[in-house]
Amino acid sequence: MPELPEVETVRRTLAPILGARLTSVSASGLPLRLGAKVPVAGLRKLVGCKVVALRRLGKYLLLDVEGDKGILVHLGMSGRLRVFDAGEATALHTHMRLGLEAGRELRYSDPRRFGQISLYQRGREREHPALAVLGPDPLDESLDGAALLLAQARRRKTPLKAFVLDQRVLAGMGNIYASEALWLARLRPTLSASRLTARTAAGLWRAIRQVLEHALTHGGTTLRDFVAADGSTGEHAGYLQVYGRDATPCPRCRTDIRRLVQQGRATYFCPTCQPP
Question: pLDDT class for 91, splitting at 50, 70, 90?
């Protein structure tokens, strides 16, 4: 699933559509996440309006258009949001096409159909059910992340990995960068979140920010499906320290990286650098 750095990369590479006017809407009619279909009728009301801002909250993209509405996109597991010339062939599994001025189209494709497209009210987007439950975005410069983590972790028995992945705590963290951040902070993924101290919470927050910002410099991580809006792939896979590197030496201490499964997801850690 695209995580925060990948979704932010999509947002940045969508910049060419800023100021473009929507000219048409079409959809496959197939259901996406939770059986919801692309809201064609609502989108058609936006034809003639310009895209005025591109925002992101966690793993969600927010496309503000003129008026009081915006388009909310979640890429799910395999979703892609790309800009094409209108004359280019439409790929399989394309579920939405938004015509734009100057002969371009914004297309959403999603083979697994776990993504989501809906509308929100500008200025009240946090009232949308998908966004109302989210915690703050870790790239918010005004956020006191260490204090947030410490406060949220109190009395929680959940393992640290699950805690970091909880979108109600921080919006946008995913499996890849959770493993990477915990390794960088030298914290065992199975450790109870309630054991965080002011010192370790501060270290974890620094690690989260560092891992996300480093991934952004490489356009995110492409393991299989992810591409940016301009068709480019992320180059961060070669910079991952532990994720997907089980049975290879830890970059810090040379102990073999181990893999375990937590909540159905693979976790990677160093048994020496991340003591129990």
Answer: very high
For residue 46, the Cα-to-chain-centroid distance in whole angstroms is: 26
SS (H, E, C) 198-266: HHHHHHHHHHHHHHHHHHHHCCCECCCCCCCCCCCCCEHHHHCCCCCCCCCECCCCCCECEEEEECCEE
Percentage of the chain with pLDDT > 90? 98
* DSSP, res 132: H
CATH 3.20.190.10 domain residues, the chain: 4-132
The arrangement of strands across the sheet holding 22-27 comes to 22-27, 94-100, 104-109, 80-85
Q: What is the mean pLDDT of residues 247-270?
A: 98
Domain made up of 145-269: CATH architecture: Orthogonal Bundle (1.10)
Mean pLDDT (whole number) for 225-232: 96
Provide the CATH number for the domain formed by 4-132 in this structure: 3.20.190.10
**Confidence (pLDDT) at 1:** 87
Tokens (6 digits) for 216:
């952004």
3-state DSSP assignment of residue 113: coil
Q: How many C-beta neighbours within 10 Å does residue 259 have? A: 15
- Rounded to two decimals, the pTM is 0.96
List, by residue number, the catalytic residues.
Answer: 2-3, 59, 265
In what helix (H) or strand (E) does residue 105 lie, and over which residues does it extend?
A: strand 104-109
